């Protein structure tokens, strides 16, 4: 059986082009995202699928009240521990949002989907996007971080450990993806997205799209300009970056 959290960590670690790049890359994308925080009194934020709380210290200071949802108890406990050690007191953690109070219609100024969409069955993905529209105030924004699909790249993959214990990524079809994504055992199923995948949701208008986490650009480019800035030049954006960050606004 694959430890899905460990599989995610191992695949990410193996792809880092040089030590410290992932952290620098997240610094870049969150510096862009922060420009979309309203920063007004009483601002309320929701993170759906917060995982182990990887991002909570990057946004906590910008909102008066935060709700972070994570169904996996182990991951949720780790996120709560991180909030404790970082003195983050304006955050509330929930399990299954269907059974919890506090998620009222049009009650959030900002929603972050930064850990979860790529692992959801496609029906759940559609439902989550519709729920985000329902929970956002008019003029509120949702930020999304997902794996970026470049031209010719497979949409669906499964990640598993081979006989040597090394993690392998393999192409699968949509049916296999949905079957694997619906259960907690077996290989880790993942979906990649393009910008176009998020341009047809009713009531959501795209206001920002950036790629980041690049593993293809030679490292010597970083001597002149950080790679995450280079790959967001209009003529390069769709060919580079293993992650995609989008911000959409509710009409």
Topology:
Elements: H1 4-15, H2 21-33, E1 44-48, H3 56-59, E2 65-69, H4 73-85, E3 91-94, E4 108-113, H5 122-135, E5 136-147, E6 156-161, E7 167-171, H6 174-181, E8 188-191, E9 204-212, H7 227-230, E10 243-250
Parallel strand pairs: 1-2, 1-4, 2-3, 4-5
Antiparallel strand pairs: 5-10, 6-7, 6-8, 9-10
Q: Give the class from helix and strand content and strand pairing.
A: alpha/beta
**Beta content:** 25-35%
Can you say what the CATH homologous superfamily is? Vaccinia Virus protein VP39
Question: What average pLDDT do the residues reach?
Answer: 87
CATH class equals Alpha Beta
Number of helices: 7
Envelope shape:
globular
Widest beta sheet: strand line-up: 3-2-1-4-5-10-9
Work out the count of structural domains: 1
* Sheet with the most strands, sense and barrel status: 7 strands, mixed
Task: Compute the number of strand runs.
Answer: 10
Helix content: 25-40%
Element-by-element helix/strand order: HHEHEHEEHEEEHEEHE
**Cα separation of the termini:** 44 Å
Instruction: Give the radius of gyration.
Output: 18 Å
pLDDT < 50 stretches? none
- Might you state the CATH topology name? Rossmann fold
| CATH architecture name | 3-Layer(aba) Sandwich
What does this 3D model show about the protein?
This protein is an alpha/beta fold. It has a single domain (4-250), classed as Vaccinia Virus protein VP39 (Rossmann fold, 3-Layer(aba) Sandwich), CATH 3.40.50. The chain is 27% helix and 25% strand. The protein is built from seven helices and ten strands. The chain has helices at 4-15, 21-33, 56-59, 73-85, 122-135, 174-181, 227-230; strands spanning 44-48, 65-69, 91-94, 108-113, 136-147, 156-161, 167-171, 188-191, 204-212, 243-250. The strands form two sheets. A seven-stranded mixed β-sheet has the order 3-2-1-4-5-10-9. Strand 4, helix 5 and strand 5 form a beta-alpha-beta unit. The radius of gyration is 18 Å and the shape is globular.
């Amino acid at each position: 059986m694959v430890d899905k959290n460990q599989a995610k960590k191992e695949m990410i670690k193996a792809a880092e082009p040089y030590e410290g790049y992932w952290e620098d890359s997240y610094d870049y994308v969150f510096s862009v995202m922060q420009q979309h925080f309203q920063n007004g009194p009483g601002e309320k934020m929701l993170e759906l699928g917060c995982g182990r709380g990887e991002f909570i210290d990057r946004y906590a200071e910008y909102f008066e009240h935060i709700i972070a949802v994570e169904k996996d108890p182990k991951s949720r406990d780790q996120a709560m521990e991180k909030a404790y050690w970082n003195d983050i007191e304006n955050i509330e953690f929930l399990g299954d949002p269907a059974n919890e109070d506090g998620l009222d219609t049009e009650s959030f100024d900002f929603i972050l989907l930064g850990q979860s969409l790529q692992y959801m069955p496609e029906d759940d993905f559609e439902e989550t996007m519709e729920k985000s529209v329902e929970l956002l105030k008019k003029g509120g924004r949702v930020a999304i971080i997902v794996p970026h699909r470049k031209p010719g790249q497979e949409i669906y993959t499964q990640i598993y450990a081979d006989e040597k214990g090394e993690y392998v990524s393999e192409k699968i079809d949509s049916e296999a993806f949905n079957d694997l994504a619906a259960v907690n055992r077996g290989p880790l199923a993942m979906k990649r997205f393009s910008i176009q995948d998020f341009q047809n949701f009713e009531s959501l208008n795209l206001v920002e799209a950036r790629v980041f986490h690049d593993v293809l650009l030679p490292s010597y480019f970083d001597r002149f300009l950080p790679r995450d800035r280079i790959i967001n030049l209009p003529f390069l954006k769709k060919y580079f970056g293993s992650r995609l960050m989008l911000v959409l606004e509710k009409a």
